[in-house]
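Hi all, posting the design record for the shared folder.

TITLE: backbone redesign
STEP: 1 of 1
STRUCTURE INPUT:
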C-alpha cells in the first residue's frame, strides 16, 4: 500500500481520489471502529460515523476552513468522537428515531393525552415537510432496511451515498423538530 503525506491526503480528499479515500479508510477507520464498538456501537454505526467525519473534513477542505493544529489522524478521530457522542446524546434525549417512528401515526385513544397529541403533531408536521426523497429514505430506515437496500430502492450509486443521504435527512428532521417553538414549549 502506498503511503501518503497529510498534504497529499487532504488534496486527494478534495479531489475525491478513490485511491486516497481507500488509503484513509484502511488507515483511519480501525481507530474509529474501535471507538464506536468500545462505546456500545455496531459496525454499521462505526461506518456511518466514519463517513460523516470524512464528509465534515471534505466540507472543511472545500470551504478553505481546514486549519489543522494537530495531525489529520487526531482531527479525524476528534470529529468521529464528537459525532458519536452527539449520537449517544440523541439516543438519550426525548427525541429519537424510535420516538419519531412511533409518533408518525396518531392513535385515536391518544388524542386525549395533550402532551402525546402535541408531540405527535409536531413530529408529523416536520416529517411531512421533508422532501419526498427524505421521507422515503427515513421510512426505509425505520423499516430496518440495510443501507445497501436503501441505495438499491432509491437508485443511489452506493451504500455510502445512502448513508450520507440518511444522515442529511435525519439532521434536517431533528433540526426542524428541535427548533420548533411548540416543541420547545412542550419539552420544558
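Okay, here is what came back for every position:
SEQUENCE:
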Amino acid at each position: 500500500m502506498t503511503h501518503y503525506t497529510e498534504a497529499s491526503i487532504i488534496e486527494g480528499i478534495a479531489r475525491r481520489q478513490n485511491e486516497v479515500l481507500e488509503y484513509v479508510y484502511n488507515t483511519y477507520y480501525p481507530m474509529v471502529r474501535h471507538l464506536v464498538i468500545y462505546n456500545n456501537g455496531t459496525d454499521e454505526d462505526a461506518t456511518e460515523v466514519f463517513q460523516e467525519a470524512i464528509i465534515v473534513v471534505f466540507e472543511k477542505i472545500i470551504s478553505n476552513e481546514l486549519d489543522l493544529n494537530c495531525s489529520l489522524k487526531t482531527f479525524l478521530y476528534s470529529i468521529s468522537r464528537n459525532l458519536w457522542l452527539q449520537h449517544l446524546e440523541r439516543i438519550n434525549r426525548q427525541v429519537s428515531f424510535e420516538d419519531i417512528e412511533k409518533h408518525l401515526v396518531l392513535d385515536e385513544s391518544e388524542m386525549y393525552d395533550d402532551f402525546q397529541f402535541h408531540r405527535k403533531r409536531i413530529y408529523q408536521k416536520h416529517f411531512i415537510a421533508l422532501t419526498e426523497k427524505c421521507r422515503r429514505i427515513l421510512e426505509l430506515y425505520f423499516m430496518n432496511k440495510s443501507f445497501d437496500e436503501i441505495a438499491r430502492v432509491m437508485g443511489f450509486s452506493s451504500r455510502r451515498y445512502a448513508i450520507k443521504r440518511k444522515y442529511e435527512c435525519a439532521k434536517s428532521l431533528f433540526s426542524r423538530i428541535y427548533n420548533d417553538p411548540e416543541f420547545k414549549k412542550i419539552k420544558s
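COMMENT: Residues 97-187 form one domain.
Let me know if anyone wants the other runs.
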